[in-house]
């Protein structure tokens, strides 16, 4: 049985991909399956934590008994949900793929094509960065874990993007992975590099998403001391 080294800790995890509505039937979304976030939730539960999962469109089959789930659709809803439960959390893991932009307005009725072949321009506005807001509001002793999913062509470029993100978002740990058509999103396995807040490498992990989650939680436990 796993070591119960997160016994009674409140762990909040966001998972899945947000959907930003365009009109009553359409949205802008992403390929996140929610598998890595749910693997974190299951791993934390097995290690004794009290787990709250803020879930944005998980693939089917990821339901887990013993985990409190708050379902959300958009980045704004995810922000509200995470920020309300993060206040009392010991650990926050932002594994969700949050939309960076949302449509400036949501059409009340279905957008029609005009049939003139002229195309359609969408006006998007930037969503607030939830992870950066969480780290600004971090309470003493709270550990905040962020993700950086990138399509970098080489490991060095991936790490460079990760280091820049670590500096910008000020998470305690940043889990960096490559995504694209073949890796990361949707897959059952993952390969990650874990960076500390200063951008230095603290761990590397490859294997099932559960194994990756446990490796990152080992670093969370180490940081808590
Ligand atoms: O900047 P980027 O989207 O790559 O950052 C990824 C990390 O930031 C993830 O942990 C994701 O959950 C979080 N994020 C966020 N709010 C956003 C966009 C991303 O918290 N609006």
Number of strands: 12
Low-confidence segments, ≥5 residues, pLDDT <50?
A: none
Cα end-to-end separation = 22 Å
SSE string, helices as H and strands as E: EEEHEEHEEEHEHEEEH
Which strand order does the major sheet show? 5-4-1-6-9-10-11-12
Per CATH, which architecture? 3-Layer(aba) Sandwich
What's the number of domains? 1
- Helix content percent band: 25-40%
In angstroms, what is the radius of gyration? 18 Å
Major sheet characteristics: 8 strands, mixed
Specify the structural class.
alpha/beta
Overall outline: globular
CATH topology: Rossmann fold
Number of helices: 5
Tell me the CATH superfamily: CoaB-like
What do you see in this structure?
By secondary structure, this protein is α/β, with parallel strands linked by helices. It has a single domain, classed as Rossmann fold (3-Layer(aba) Sandwich), CATH 3.40.50. The chain is built from 5 helices and 12 strands. The strands form 3 sheets. The chain has an 8-stranded mixed sheet, with helices on both faces. α1 packs across α5. The protein is globular. The model has no long low-confidence stretch (mean pLDDT 95). The structure holds cytidine-5'-monophosphate. The site of cytidine-5'-monophosphate (C5P) has 12 residues, from α3 and β9.
Task: Give keywords.
lyase, Rossmann fold, two-stranded antiparallel sheet, binds cytidine-5'-monophosphate, Coenzyme A biosynthesis bifunctional protein CoaBC, EC 6.3.2.5, 12 strands, 225 residues, EC 4.1.1.36
């Amino acid at each position: 049985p796993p070591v119960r080294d997160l016994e009674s800790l409140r762990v909040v995890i966001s998972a899945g991909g947000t959907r930003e509505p365009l009109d009553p039937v359409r949205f802008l979304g992403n390929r996140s399956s929610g598998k890595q976030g749910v693997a974190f939730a299951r791993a934390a539960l097995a290690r004794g934590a009290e787990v709250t999962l803020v879930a944005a469109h998980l693939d089917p089959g990821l339901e887990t008994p013993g985990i409190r789930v708050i379902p959300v659709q958009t980045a704004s809803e995810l922000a509200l949900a995470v920020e309300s439960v993060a206040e009392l959390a010991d650990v926050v893991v932002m594994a969700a793929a949050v939309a960076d932009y949302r449509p400036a307005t949501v059409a009340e009725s279905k957008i029609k094509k005009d049939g003139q072949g002229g195309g359609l321009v969408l006006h998007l506005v930037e969503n607030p960065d939830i992870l950066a807001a969480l780290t600004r509001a971090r309470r003493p002793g709270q550990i905040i874990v962020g993700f950086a999913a990138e399509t970098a062509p080489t490991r060095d470029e991936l790490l460079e993007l990760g280091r820049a993100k670590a500096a910008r978002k000020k998470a305690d740990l940043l889990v960096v992975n490559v995504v694209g058509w073949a890796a990361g999103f949707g897959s059952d396995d993952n390969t990650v590099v874990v960076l500390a807040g200063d951008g230095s490498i603290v761990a590397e992990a490859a294997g099932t998403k559960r194994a990756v989650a446990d490796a990152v939680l080992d670093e969370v436990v180490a940081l808590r001391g």
